[in-house]
Amino acid sequence: AKAAERVAPEARTALAILVEAVRFKTQIPALDRLLHGGLPCAVTEVVGPAGAGKTQLCFTSAAAATRAGVGEVVWIDSEGAFRPERLREVIQASRAAMGLDPAGFWEQLQRVRVVVGESLEDVHSHVQTVHNMTVGSVVLCIVDSVAAVARVVGEVAA
Question: Which of 88, 123, 147, 153 is the most buried (most CB within 10 A)?
């Protein structure tokens, strides 16, 4: 029976897979509940119209990831949208909400590495570099945004 399970494993529902995945808590309680405990620790694409809060979710996730102090966040910025001032505000607010000293934001900001990816090749190279880094040294990799470099590729082809 065990050999048969390995050769032809029983099908599982998408919900079962979603619930079993290791989670990264966004620190947004309502969103974490909707996602059954947070974002899956895997490639996750966040889509929506301009102004929907995609970059804000990235800032909040970066703040949550750096608070534990166990690794770094790599932010690949392809649109020039990264604003260190905004990240500082989000970190300070989240620290204050948790009863932590808001002045501790400096240590968290030092754990966010920002690189520019102006083309699809740049973004791919940066992601490959992150992939090859020591396990645990990078706890979150944000690409903001894949759509921006894909649009450039589409415009060049047109």
Answer: 123
What is the rounded distance in angstroms from the CA atom of residue 118 to the CA atom of residue 78? 5
Token digits for 29?
A: 């309680």
| Residue 156 confidence (pLDDT) | 53
10: helix, strand or coil: coil
Q: How far apart are CA 67 and CA 108, in angstroms?
A: 6
CA distance 76 to 127: 8
* Coarse DSSP helix, strand, coil percentages of the chain, rounded to the nearest 5 percent: 50, 15, 35
pLDDT in tens, 116-139: 988 888 988 988 888 888 766 888
Residue 114, beta-bridge partner list: 75
Question: Full-prediction pTM beyond 0.70?
Answer: yes
State the Cα–Cα distance between residues 35 and 29, nearest whole angstrom.
10
How far apart CA 57 and CA 54 sit, in angstroms, is 5
Query: Residue 15, class by beta-carbon neighbours within 10 Å (0-12 exposed, 13-18 middle, 19+ buried)?
Result: exposed
Angle between helix axes 146-157 and 120-132 (nearest 10 degrees) is 140
